[in-house]
Design brief:
The chain has 415 residues and is an alpha/beta fold. The protein has helices at 30-36, 46-63, 77-88, 102-113, 131-141, 164-170, 190-193, 219-226, 255-262, 274-290, 292-312, 339-350, 377-393, 402-414, and strands at residues 19-20, 69-74, 94-99, 117-122, 145-149, 151-152, 157-158, 174-178, 197-199, 212-217, 328-332, 352-353, 365-369. The protein has 2 domains: 30-287, Type I PLP-dependent aspartate aminotransferase-like (Major domain) (Aspartate Aminotransferase, domain 2, 3-Layer(aba) Sandwich); 292-414, Aspartate Aminotransferase, domain 1. It is built from 14 helices and 13 strands. Strand 8, helix 7 and strand 9 form a beta-alpha-beta unit.
Length: 415
């Protein structure tokens, strides 16, 4: 105890000026922060369960779905990813993972931890996997689940989803898509895609804090999950039905039990993260209040402006430009330049955070996000101005004005 300071480290006081222009998290909307300060209620309080029902209705709009089973998983976006995979995949079943970046590799790892047989259809980092190759692999391996990532921030690429649901149904599989980095910033029409399970997080384009994860589940996927239903002995009653399929290999991430709590049964699973639920509710209200088409277009323009500014400065944009995410831009670090030194300068001198990278791109690429409230003209311009100044101070002279190129994109969009 002797190493504790007399003021117990003081009240937490992070810098409130920091502009988060990395690949996530993004700055949290003030309305969301205010919502999180609301009074915490018990998880069976009628006022609280009414809020839960409101959240379900709001996220049907955000996901563009009529799925009854649209709700929240307590935990970061990875919690929902793991809940989806462990609740679908029984040991020995096959999952086909579409992989072209870090988060495709994550799906492989989680599949292995579920005891599933993992098959992979992949492309090099910076590219996407064509749907015909996914279909060919699915017909060959006949998986229980096809799993992929819509927007992989490790590469800033957006994997096209049109046709994935059709491929899955053709081979008798379920389909899963991780839209953590794209929901609220790119079009995620779940019903039009025909995807069975889709999960996200608040901390990217939804403008919320990490800690709760939206999920939507089709009826056919729900039937499969409920076939694995198991009710804890401590809360079971005589009328509870147990599924005939193998028990789900996690208690916390058992979607059948979580869905029983989010249903009219309100069968207790765990104490709901009340303040995070309030955050999720306000995020959805902000997104739908702006309007999905307008919000998606705002992200599209901001991403195009950032990429144009980067190119105008004489830097090279990473990856396949035709399949670039709206809300994240990869930038090759110029030869001989200290990439981490520049990120430090951006943070300390300009109060702007941009992202590093990892895996095969470690030390080679910066990642710049334009997400949620940060996907706006002035934030794009400020970031490019700071980047040009930081580059100059690190010994790199920009070829042209990144700000002028970015503003030209905005001017063209306005016209």
């Amino acid at each position: 105890m002797s190493d504790l300071p007399s003021d117990l480290f003081g009240e937490i006081d992070p810098p409130d000026r920091r502009l988060l222009m990395g690949p996530g998290p993004s700055n949290v909307h003030p309305r969301v922060l205010r919502a999180m300060s609301a009074t915490v209620l018990g998880q069976f309080d009628p006022e609280f369960t009414t809020t839960m029902n409101q959240v379900m209705a709001l996220y049907r709009g955000v996901f563009q779905t009529s799925n009854k089973w649209t709700f929240m998983i307590d935990g970061t976006s990875r919690a929902a990813i793991e809940a989806a995979l462990v609740s679908v995949l029984a040991p020995g079943e096959t999952v086909l993972v579409v992989s072209s970046g870090r988060f495709g590799l994550l799906l492989q790892e989680i599949g292995q931890r579920c005891g599933a047989k993992v098959e992979i259809v992949e492309a090099p980092w910076g590219e996407i996997v064509p749907m015909d190759r996914i279909a060919e692999a699915a017909r060959r391996v006949k998986p229980r689940l096809i799993a992929c990532v819509h927007g992989d921030t490790s590469t800033t690429m957006a994997q096209p989803q049109e046709g994935l649901g059709d491929v899955a149904r053709e081979v008798g599989a379920l389909s899963y898509v991780d839209v953590t980095a794209t929901l609220g910033g790119m079009d995620v029409p779940v019903d039009a895609w025909g995807t069975d399970i889709v999960t996200a997080g608040l901390q990217k384009c939804l403008g919320g804090p990490p800690g709760i994860a939206p999920i939507t589940i089709s009826d056919r996927a729900a039937d499969h999950i409920f076939a694995r239903r198991h009710v804890e002995k401590g809360i079971a009653s005589a009328g509870d039905k147990t599924g005939s399929a193998p028990i789900i290999g996690s208690n916390y991430f058992d979607l059948a039990m979580v869905m029983d709590y989010w249903s009219e049964k309100r069968l207790n699973h765990h104490t709901e993260a009340a303040s995070m639920l309030y955050a999720a509710r306000e995020c959805a209200r902000i997104v739908l209040g702006e309007g999905l088409p307008a919000r998606i277009d705002r992200h599209r323009i901001a991403g195009a402006a950032m990429a144009a500014g980067i190119a105008a400065m004489g830097l090279k944009v990473y990856g396949d430009r035709a399949n670039k995410m709206f809300n994240a831009t990869g930038v090759f670090i110029p030869d001989g330049l200290n990439g981490e030194g520049l990120r430090k300068r951006m943070r300390e001198e300009f109060e702007i955070e941009i992202g590093t990278s990892f895996g095969p791109l470690a030390g080679k690429v910066w990642r710049i996000g334009t997400m949620a409230g940060n996907a706006r003209r002035h934030h794009v311009a400020h970031t490019l101005m700071a980047l040009e100044a930081a580059l100059r101070r690190e010994g790199f002279k920009a070829a042209g004005s990144g700000v002028d190129a970015a503003l030209a994109i905005y001017d063209g969009a306005a016209g």
